[in-house]
């Protein structure tokens, strides 16, 4: 009996959901519930945490899940660690749909940093205009450098006051395009970009725009994860599922 849990929240997860639906495979799409109105999916959707690795293991058993696909964002490290632990405990096969990290090309002025505090340290002392394209959850450390004007791009309007004194806020959900990001960065006179090395196509536009505008990018490395079975494309995951004992749909 095939029943797949798809841990989503990325462009690739949405593409995989479409492929699973088209293949007639039974699957459930899972969101954390971080945003007010996540994009609709062609699969049944569940929203919210599972209650740690233990809660996830109980969910997998209770729902009769036969396969887990972790297609979460590379920075959703806690979810990925929990999926590894819960699948180990329950013996349920796991594959991660993991986008390759971005690598700089000719004309790129990138500085790789290990984490958010290192990104703050990498910003200059002299006041700059920084496109802080890292969402909402990791803004607080940048309060250490209030002298910069920060352009923030958030999915939902902030409910709480922002921890930074000089900000411009754009409310937008990607995927984004290079022309739009180039125009946005020009309009705001951006001098520096801070981004996560998310990989994938849905977040890459700002890097293409930075190259066009010849701007420096401070790129935060993704958190390290324990070794796990992984695929880099939707097609690889579909092949794994067809070999991993799933009964194909109609
Ligand atoms: C809730 C689901 C799809 C998925 C689209 C991808 C692309 C657009 C680019 C910038 C960077 C950022 C952020 C980003 C991108 C895709 C993808 C991606 C980056 C949604 C979504 C959910 C989230 C959660 C949200 C975080 C935030 C991060 C914004 C939906 C739109 C900055 C990551 O307000 C908050 O609390 C937002 C939190 C986690 C990071 C942060 O720390 O703030 N994503 N993003 C998912 C859930 O509840 O499970 O609302 O529709 C999904 C997408 N966001 O199906 O088309 O595949 O990466 N998401 C980063 O990469 O730095 C924006 O602005 O350039
Ligand atoms: P995280 O820090 O790794 O996870 C924190 C907790 O949130 C998890 O332990 C789990 O709660 C819950 N959770 C996370 N993803 C979930 C999912 N898909 N379904 C159900 N519960 C989930 O996660 P995050 O970085 O906040 O990311 C949350 C979501 O946003 C994920 O779907 C991710 O793909 C998406 N996203 C994140 C980023 C980013 O920059 N972090 C970017 C784009 C999209 P319990 O422990 O209670 O189970």
Summarize the structure.
The protein has 250 residues and is of the alpha/beta class. The protein has helices at residues 11-22, 52-62, 77-90, 116-122, 178-187, 205-213, 234-243, and strands spanning 4-7, 27-31, 45-47, 67-70, 94-97, 109-113, 129-133, 149-154, 167-171, 192-196, 216-220, 230-231. The protein contains 7 helices and 12 strands.
Rg from alpha-carbon coordinates: 19 Å
Structural class: alpha/beta
What share of the residues lie within helices?
25-40%
Write down the CATH topology of the largest domain. Rossmann fold
Q: How many structurally independent domains? A: 2
Secondary-structure element string:
EHEEHEHEEHEEEHEHEEH
CATH superfamily of the largest domain: NAD(P)-binding Rossmann-like Domain
The backbone outline, from C-alpha atoms, is: elongated
* Small molecules bound in the structure, each named once: ligand 3Y8, NADP nicotinamide-adenine-dinucleotide phosphate
**Count of beta strands:** 12
Averaged pLDDT, please?
95
**Number of H/I helices:** 7
> What is the CATH class name of the largest domain?
Alpha Beta
Query: Biggest sheet: strands, sense, closure?
Result: 6 strands, parallel
Write the layout of secondary structure elements.
Elements: E1 4-7, H1 11-22, E2 27-31, E3 45-47, H2 52-62, E4 67-70, H3 77-90, E5 94-97, E6 109-113, H4 116-122, E7 129-133, E8 149-154, E9 167-171, H5 178-187, E10 192-196, H6 205-213, E11 216-220, E12 230-231, H7 234-243
Parallel strand pairs: 1-2, 1-4, 2-3, 4-5, 5-12, 6-11, 7-8, 7-10, 8-9, 10-11
Helix pairs in contact: 1-7, 2-3, 5-6
Bound molecules: ligand 3Y8 and NADP nicotinamide-adenine-dinucleotide phosphate (NAP).
């Amino acid at each position: 009996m095939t029943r797949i849990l798809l841990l989503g929240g990325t462009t690739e997860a949405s593409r995989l959901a479409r492929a699973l639906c088209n293949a007639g495979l039974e699957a459930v799409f899972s969101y954390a519930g971080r945003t007010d109105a996540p994009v609709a999916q062609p699969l049944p959707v569940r929203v919210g945490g599972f209650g740690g690795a233990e809660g996830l293991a109980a969910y997998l058993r209770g729902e009769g899940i036969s396969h887990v696909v972790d297609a979460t964002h590379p920075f959703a490290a806690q979810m990925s660690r929990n999926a590894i632990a819960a699948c180990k405990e329950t013996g349920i096969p796991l594959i991660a749909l993991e986008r390759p990290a971005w690598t700089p090309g000719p004309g790129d002025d990138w500085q790789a940093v290990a984490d958010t505090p290192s990104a703050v340290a990498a910003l200059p002392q002299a006041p700059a205009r920084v496109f802080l394209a890292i969402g909402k959850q990791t803004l607080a450390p940048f309060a250490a450098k209030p002298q910069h004007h920060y352009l923030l791009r958030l999915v939902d309007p902030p409910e709480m006051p922002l921890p930074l004194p000089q900000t411009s806020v754009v409310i937008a959900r990607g995927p984004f395009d290079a022309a739009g990001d180039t125009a946005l960065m020009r309009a705001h006179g951006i001098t520096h970009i801070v981004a996560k090395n998310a990989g994938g196509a849905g977040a890459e536009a700002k890097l293409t725009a930075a190259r066009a505008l010849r701007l420096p990018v401070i790129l935060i490395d993704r958190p390290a994860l324990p070794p796990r079975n992984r695929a880099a494309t939707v097609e690889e995951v579909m092949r794994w599922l067809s070999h991993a004992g799933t009964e194909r749909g109609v």
